[in-house]
Design a protein that fits this description.
CATH superfamily of the largest domain in chain A: PurM-like C-terminal domain
Number of strands of chain A: 13
Helix content of chain A: 25-40%
Largest sheet of chain A: 7 strands, mixed
Structural class of chain A: alpha+beta
Order of helices and strands of chain A: HEEEHEHEEEHHHEHEHHEHEEE
Largest interface: A-B, 84 and 84 residues
Oligomer: homodimer
Number of helices of chain A: 10
Strand order of the largest sheet of chain A: 8-10-7-11-9-12-13
CATH class of the largest domain in chain A: Alpha Beta
Amino acid sequence: MDEGRTEIADMGEFGLIKHLTQNNDTRQAGTILSVGDDAAVIDNFGRQTVITTDLLLEGIHFDMMYTPLKHLGYKAVAVNLSDICAMNAIPTHITMSIGITNRFSVEALDEFYDGVYAACEKYDIDLVGGDTSTSQKGFVISVTAIGEVAPNKFVTRSGAGKGDLICVSGDLGAAYLGLQLLEREKKIFLESPGVQPDLGGKAYLIQRILKPEPRLDIVNWLQENDVVPTSMIDISDGLSSEMLHICNSSDLGCILHEEKIPFHSETKETAYEFQVDPTACALSGGEDYELLFTIKQEDYEKIIRNEQISVVGYMTDKAEGAMLLTRSGNKHKLVAQGWNAFPQ
Amino acid sequence: MDEGRTEIADMGEFGLIKHLTQNNDTRQAGTILSVGDDAAVIDNFGRQTVITTDLLLEGIHFDMMYTPLKHLGYKAVAVNLSDICAMNAIPTHITMSIGITNRFSVEALDEFYDGVYAACEKYDIDLVGGDTSTSQKGFVISVTAIGEVAPNKFVTRSGAGKGDLICVSGDLGAAYLGLQLLEREKKIFLESPGVQPDLGGKAYLIQRILKPEPRLDIVNWLQENDVVPTSMIDISDGLSSEMLHICNSSDLGCILHEEKIPFHSETKETAYEFQVDPTACALSGGEDYELLFTIKQEDYEKIIRNEQISVVGYMTDKAEGAMLLTRSGNKHKLVAQGWNAFPQ
């Protein structure tokens, strides 16, 4: 046995995953896609099953001080459905496991499950299993989502071609600013418990961080309009990080046009208040749960008919790197500064 | 909103699950079996998919002081495969999510995954996804297992008929005594760190608690011999608790014959050393991960050819209750004293 000690922080989340799965064999003939994408794909004699799982830990992924339990239940489901959508698949089922400390009452859990069931109802999915347990510290949530897709119609990160157009759904950067607002109000509350939170005019930002929605509408629209993305990923860690995933997996470079990145008006206003660059919020903020995907150029005419989709750039040769073309005409390398699951 | 506070401990694990899932709707036509059994069943145009999930939390489900990481990885997989086997299905895939504190080195995680992959190899299953994250406290493990079964050949807890024979695989009570041995040695070590652990002659008991095996061999044997159990469950919380699940779900009573309960010789010897009743270890000990199932009487001749299966009783009318017939000829009501996920 090697006596050396390698710190996990030195490896980073993606390095660690790569390390841990390097010897992962595939034995089942039905395993079409395994570890390394948003979800796995299993063949099922006609349709294919897509599966994904996420762990949400109190103090790491959410702060109970400003996260209403109903929203948390909804979000725990939503972020998993987003991974299924990122495969161009339709979510159908989830399992939900929770570990809870004795500070939780049944009424508190009911609120959490109200949110879980609200998400199930909205997205027409079934909760089919789970596990409940005591936790020594903190609220532990583990969700597995399952979806279905027609044979070989799933979309991975690796299929982008040179010249393909890069698209994002909705708008970016709002969830990050929503989180900054909640953190600011928490700080004020801890210093002066009597002060009421001031979140006027920020409803959109708060909703984006507390109650994200998977873009199943986009997946359905793409199918209805016969647009098959060449690659796709959901934006959980910021546009830069996800764009780099697509570039690396597809062995290509890209150019993103800063001026094309879509923002909500509240995002722009609040970014200026906080004296941060809205582009930085989009690139590195994370938690937007929008879809980032590439399409063939011939699908451009179809795509622009959907106001919820913005074309933000195109794929280039790998040698050209993954670049941002700024409003002022400068080129910057994209850097993955997304949320790090293993902070130093 | 109800202002009252209901303690989760007052409800118990099964009461809580029932409470939380009472409004759980089924929307997907493919959902054949949802919450409430060992695993859910999803129809997939030919084969059916079985899915189950378990959360394992440090300090609640395992003690890192005496649990080697490789064994822990193996066990985290094995206990989930056991749930798939309990549906009379063949496990095919797992996802594995972990939350880890910074006291973990990469080498430590490698050991854990050595165990995970060893279980995957032994049971011919694929690890197809997961999530890794920091944890503020304690090692968090969440596994989801998927299996397949021919259409409507899955076996639930609710199908037992009056007069059906009750069978258990392997032997019972060993894992509980293995745990007692490890707890004893931990106590001695904490009091006198220089003392070496004394586990001579206890290899079987230690193996049963640290490295349980799902009884896929039994599932395969049943299929090869055309025996379809009428009901089945895996024994994770003790024979009493699991027997009561089958009785309640099947709306029947039962009689278990104490003298028929199978024990390993080490179990009997060690029970006497600890001055506990081996029957109590089997009934309430838990973690044996054997299969408990019922068969029609006409399958008796087939079943007795398998030395790994013991017939321990039969199903009766509900009015007769769930009873243990002791060696001395007395009848006692079975009581679920299994491991409680929500201790008071």
